């Protein structure tokens, strides 16, 4: 027994743990420290709390995709600075990438590169052990041009991918990496965004151009549903034709009822106006064809919407930026919509900040108990900004005592991402590119109570450090407790007491080893 303990101690000392989530918003966790990074995405496995963060670095072969995995305590699971996904030839520009977690806990990463000469779409499935399950070079989705890729996981380990080039396309990828028929959407369509229903049928929302000029096309918003075999189930228009800036995208989120909400920003009477539309499981619009406007205020602009769905009501919560008519002062506002488009937070939305020189909504996440959290950029002075967050309940009222909190209080030049992990295990995780010293990619967690730092939620037998899994780090935690007689910050006594005798000793270590070896 003494020999076993000695071996365990040596192994644990060799496998020292990385830093956990920072509790200090001026420090944050560094994901990649070798220089400038581009375009970060974050996605969490609900079952384990493991979080994938994906980004790009510029190399001699173009933009190189990379990724790192964190447990729910903020400890990196892979090598320092992450793993390289692909070294194939790529453009030096980014035309969009996607990251989601499959139902079996793997990362689904999709992007386009020029390995075959043109910008073709590829998708990879990577396990939590770093294994490339769909091959080292991923699965090629098409030999057609691809821009702005979206991915959505199905409930059987498979996934849907959507992208646009000459028009919009979709394809279903089975759990083993084989593909079903390519689906081509109608001509003059773009920015096709995909989700799927409980039967793994794909639902796409997209723009269909009806006229106008290249820089200011006229578009209507349509939705369609397809089976994995490529059969169309329904097709409908949900927002009438408006003028748009050519680069305007749309957002699509499931409503929890088999349908979804779409948000976008048409130009109406020469002003950007944030609108949403809702469709039910049959593809029928339940909101007016004009869309439901975030605010009925005049003499200003409403743009940069970010939406999520309150799981307790199935209402859509939108955060957006309101500007004055001269577009030199800005305000954060919120609005809540029913499935019929009724505005619940007054006809002009709820003010969530005063007017200032710079506030910019980044991304939002619904809260399991109702309401939502907004992450936003604040105070861009000399191209330097901070990152803050606020939480409101289902009525739009502030939840935290100080109303807003810092995720990053250090003013620096940042390249923000319109993506976060969503709330899982009581926290949301956000990553961004930062020019501070050292320059690189940074990340931070935010807990439901508005604080930062490690969480303690695990009730898994043997999971002594509460990171959601049982491994050698739990042995390290128990050994530290036994040898030094103190409780580490992340120590969970009930989990460490595997045999339930209200004592932590060598017997518990042996049982943890047995759990790991199973």
User: What portion of residues belong to β-strands?
Assistant: 35-45%
Average pLDDT:
92
Provide the low-confidence segments as ranges. 1-17
Number of strands: 34
Q: List the total number of helices.
A: 4
Cα distance spanning the termini: 20 Å
Shape summary: globular
Q: Helicity range of the residues?
A: under 10%
Strand pairing plus helix content: what structural class? mainly beta
The radius of gyration computed from the alpha-carbon positions, rounded to a whole number of angstroms, is 24 Å
**Main β sheet profile:** 4 strands, antiparallel
Strand order of the largest sheet: 1-34-33-32
Description:
The protein is mainly beta. Among the domains are: 1-20 and 455-518, Dockerin domain (Type 1 dockerin domain, Orthogonal Bundle), CATH 1.10.1330; 185-293, no CATH class. 8% of the residues lie in helices and 42% in strands. It has a four-stranded antiparallel sheet with strand order 1-34-33-32, with no helix packed on it. Strands 2-3-4-5 form a four-stranded antiparallel sheet, with no helix packed on it. α1 crosses α2 (472-484) and α2 (472-484) runs antiparallel to α4. It is globular and about 75 Å long. It starts with a helix and ends with a helix. Residues 1-17 have low confidence and may be disordered.
Short précis:
This protein is mainly beta and 518 residues long.
Describe the protein's topology.
Elements: H1 2-14, E1 29-32, E2 38-44, E3 51-59, E4 62-70, E5 83-84, E6 97-101, E7 107-113, E8 120-126, E9 139-140, E10 147-153, E11 159-164, E12 168-173, E13 183-184, E14 189-196, E15 202-212, E16 217-226, E17 232-243, E18 251-254, E19 260-264, E20 267-268, E21 271-272, E22 275-279, E23 292-293, E24 300-309, E25 316-324, E26 330-337, E27 350-351, E28 359-366, E29 372-381, E30 384-392, E31 404-412, E32 414-415, E33 427-434, E34 440-447, H2 472-484, H3 493-496, H4 506-517
């Amino acid at each position: 027994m003494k020999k076993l303990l000695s071996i365990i101690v040596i192994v644990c000392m060799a496998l020292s743990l990385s830093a956990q989530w920072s509790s200090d918003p001026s420090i944050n966790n560094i994901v990649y420290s070798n220089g400038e990074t581009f375009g970060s995405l974050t996605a969490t496995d609900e079952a384990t709390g493991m979080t994938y963060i994906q980004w790009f670095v510029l190399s001699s072969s173009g933009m190189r995709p990379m990724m790192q995995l964190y447990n729910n305590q903020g400890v990196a699971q892979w090598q320092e600075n992450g793993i390289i996904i692909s070294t194939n030839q790529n453009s030096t520009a980014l035309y969009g990438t996607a990251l989601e977690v499959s139902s079996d806990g793997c990362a689904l990463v999709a992007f386009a590169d020029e390995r075959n000469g043109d910008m073709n779409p590829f998708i990879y499935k990577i396990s939590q052990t770093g294994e490339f399950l769909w091959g080292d070079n991923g699965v090629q989705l098409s030999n057609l041009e691809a821009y702005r890729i979206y991915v959505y996981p199905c409930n059987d380990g498979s996934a849907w991918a959507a992208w646009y080039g000459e028009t919009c396309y979709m394809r279903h990828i089975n759990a083993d990496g084989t593909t079903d028929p390519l689906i081509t959407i109608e001509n003059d369509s773009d920015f096709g965004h995909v989700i799927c229903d409980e039967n793994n049928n794909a639902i796409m929302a997209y723009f269909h151009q009806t006229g106008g000029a290249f820089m200011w096309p006229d578009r209507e918003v349509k939705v369609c549903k397809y089976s994995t075999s490529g059969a169309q189930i329904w097709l409908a228009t949900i927002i009438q034709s408006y003028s748009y800036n050519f680069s305007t995208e749309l957002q699509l989120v499931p409503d929890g009822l088999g349908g979804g909400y779409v948000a976008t920003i048409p130009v109406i009477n020469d002003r950007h106006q944030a609108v949403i539309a809702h469709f039910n499981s049959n593809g029928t619009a339940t909101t007016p064809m004009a869309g439901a406007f975030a605010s009925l205020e005049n003499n200003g602009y409403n743009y940069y919407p970010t939406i999520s769905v309150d799981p307790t009501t199935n209402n859509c919560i939108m955060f957006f930026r309101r500007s004055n008519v001269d577009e030199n002062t800005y305000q954060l506002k919120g609005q809540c919509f029913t499935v019929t488009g009724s505005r619940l937070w007054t006809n002009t939305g709820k003010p969530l900040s005063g007017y200032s020189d710079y506030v910019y909504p980044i991304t939002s996440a619904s809260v399991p108990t109702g309401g939502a959290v907004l992450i936003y950029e604040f105070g861009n002075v000399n191209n330097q900004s901070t990152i803050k967050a606020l939480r409101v309940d289902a009525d739009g009222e502030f939840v935290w005592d100080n109303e807003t909190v810092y995720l990053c209080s250090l003013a620096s030049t940042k390249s923000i991402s319109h993506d976060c992990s969503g709330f899982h295990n009581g926290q949301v995780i956000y990553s961004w590119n930062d020019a501070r010293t050292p320059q690189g990619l940074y990340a931070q967690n935010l807990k439901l109570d508005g604080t930062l730092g490690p969480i303690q939620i695990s009730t898994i037998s043997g999971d002594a450090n509460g990171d959601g899994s049982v491994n050698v780090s739990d042995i390290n935690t128990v050994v530290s407790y036994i040898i030094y007689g103190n409780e580490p910050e992340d120590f969970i006594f009930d989990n460490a007491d595997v045999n339930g005798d209200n004592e932590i000793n060598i017997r518990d270590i042996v049982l943890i080893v047995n759990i790991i070896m199973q």
